[in-house]
Structures are given as structure tokens and as C-alpha cells.
């Protein structure tokens, strides 16, 4: 029975595939943020700040914020899965080095923190929708 339990316990390492996949996705999103920021600068310098360019600049800014928030969600999820299933992270300098956002003790705590991040992402999607509809009135936020 002991060997079965040890075998089952060692299966937790399969979650490393999930952690690496999520971290790779977060890095990809960070790459998109950098690419979109360069695109934003190109649009701002080539087209100026006219009415047509303003809408495009707002769309790019919303995309940048949305992608950065999603990268944060993915990093938080990856750290949480690692700490819950595999091992607590030993960061040099102890817990003072780690932000409280990344300290995850249970699945419920991970769900709560991810829920808070999703609540931050949702308004971004609404702004993206409103700006893309090109409504006749102006928004100031």
C-alpha cells in the first residue's frame, strides 16, 4: 500500500506541464504587450493625435492593458498551481521578497485571487466594445 501511495504522490509532478504551459502563455502575452506598445508608438508618431488616430490609439491601449492583466492572471495561476500541487517556493530572502498576491495556501484562496483579477479584466473588455462601436458621443475616462 505504501508503494501505491508513493506512486500516486509522485504523479503530482505531471502538474509541471501545466505550470510550464501557463508560464509560456504569460511570456507570450508579455511579448504581445511589447509588440503592441511599439505599434502604439508608430501610430502615434505617424498619424498624430487626430480623431481617427485617437480611436485607434485607444483600441491599442485597451489591448495592451487587457494583455498585461491576462499575463498577470496566468502568472498568478501558474504560481498557485505550483505551490498547491508541487512545492512551496523558496525565494532567497524569505517571504519578504514575495508580494502577498503570490502567496497561495489553498485552492479557495487561488480562486479568490483569480476572481479579483478577472473582475479587473472585465471592464477592459467593455471599454474595447464601446470604443470599437464608434459611438457618436465621446467618452472621457
Uncertain ranges: none
Q: Percent range for helical residues?
A: over 70%
Using the alpha-carbon principal axes, give the shape: elongated
Kindly, what is the distance between the CA atoms of the first and last residues, rounded to a whole number of angstroms? 62 Å
Mind summarizing the main beta sheet? Answer: none
Q: What is the overall number of helices? A: 4
The residue-averaged pLDDT reads: 76
Helix/strand structural class: mainly alpha
* Residue share in β-strands: under 5%
Radius of gyration, Cα only, in angstroms?
A: 20 Å
**N to C succession of SSEs:** HHHH
**β-strand number:** 0
List the keywords.
141 residues, 0% strand, mainly alpha, single chain
